[in-house]
Amino acid sequence: MARAAEGRIGFAHRVIPGEQLRVFASARKKGFTRATRFELLERSPERVEPPCVYAGRCGGCDWLHIEYTAQLRHKLGLLRDALSRVGKLDALPELSIEPSPRALAYRNRIRVHVEQGKVGFREFGSHDLVDVVSCAVAAPELDRALSRFRAVLAAQPSLPASFEAELRVAPSDDRPLVRLSIVPGNNLLAALEQEFVVAFPNVPVESVQRFPFASGSWLTVPADAFVQVNWELNRLLVEALVQGAVARRCTRFLDLYAGAGNFSLPLLESGLSGVAVEGIGSAARAAGRSLSELRLPGEVVSGEVGACVQRLLEERQSFDLVVLDPPRSGAAEVVTRLGRLAPRHVAYCSCDPVTLARDLRELCAQGFSIEQIRAFDLFPGTHHFETLVWLRAER
């Protein structure tokens, strides 16, 4: 981002703070201008050669041209800016970020587009498809799955004009999972089933994938449920939340947006009791089955999160810890009611610093104060990251 002499804001993609550029073409938008064609006049010492032949075209990884430790610094800058500008939060604890054990080859799932024989990702700022043979951020076993998927499609005499596919691998599986956005024809389905577990709309799939926690237990995830793409760092994130809960002597938790139990299961294993609330039925059922298999003393509630919170309030249930792990849009539907639940602590895990800052502002207005803010770089090579914030009730 740059500000012109007359005050107008300008943006240029894949430019690092401190670099100078000469703009040859730009697109004027309402309130800002975007450089569309330019050359670098002065390069940042943080700039590196991207470790991917598709960098600059593929819209998937926007920070591969930035040296990794510099990526971490810039992510903390994005977080600090959002907390200050959106959250109006000034007196903050020291911010820290946990690096990923692997800056490349870390992803356990990718979503690809298939169009006229091409398999890949959308080009940045365009609907054009970049045909991708290998993905630098995919784990080796996932990259092999991509190659097998491409080979199956290449052998088909005809394919649907356009569809999407999510490829996902787990340490426990001999075969990767492919989840299609279409109902495949018999020939395509038979060919895919030789290589993959196949899921597609309106057909339930009994098969699940298992991802190991550090404790030795597993997160069991059905085909249409969410799982973090960087499992190695997710385990550290889970450990940090559990350790924080134990250190604060929490005994009973409410886990909102619980998924298949990424936080609930380890919290229960650590000796807490609690309730997990999840809006996606398949994920809630998987969490419930995990409780039964592990014989853990918890409860899973399937339903819309805001309505479930209202019901818990009416039932006068009490919790000393509320865990929030909402989608990118944040937890606006429930944060206005958390004060009435009266937990001693809130642990908020967010993948978007802007909606996080908005929700933290509301929680602070309800009498909570921020104790700790720690980011986790689950998405190296991109501007995305997760943040874990601990709050306590001031009463």
Furnish the topology, listing elements before pairings.
Elements: E1 2-3, E2 9-12, E3 20-29, E4 32-42, H1 68-85, E5 95-98, E6 109-115, E7 118-122, E8 129-131, H2 140-154, E9 162-168, E10 177-180, H3 186-193, E11 197-199, E12 208-212, E13 218-222, H4 231-247, E14 252-256, H5 264-269, E15 273-278, H6 281-294, E16 298-302, H7 305-314, E17 321-324, H8 332-335, H9 338-341, E18 345-350, H10 353-365, E19 368-376, E20 386-393
Parallel strand pairs: 2-4, 5-19, 10-11, 14-15, 14-17, 15-16, 17-18
Antiparallel strand pairs: 1-2, 3-4, 6-7, 6-9, 7-8, 9-10, 12-13, 18-20, 19-20
Structural domain tally: 3
Q: What name is given to the CATH topology of the largest domain?
A: Rossmann fold
N-to-C terminal Cα separation, in Å? 42 Å
Strand order of the largest sheet: 5-19-20-18-17-14-15-16
Name the structural class.
alpha/beta
Q: Would you mind describing this structure in some detail?
A:
The protein has 395 residues and is of the alpha/beta class. The chain is built from ten helices and 20 strands. It has helices spanning 68-85, 140-154, 186-193, 231-247, 264-269, 281-294, 305-314, 332-335, 338-341, 353-365, and strands at residues 2-3, 9-12, 20-29, 32-42, 95-98, 109-115, 118-122, 129-131, 162-168, 177-180, 197-199, 208-212, 218-222, 252-256, 273-278, 298-302, 321-324, 345-350, 368-376, 386-393. The longest helix is centred in the first third of the chain and has 18 residues, at 68-85.
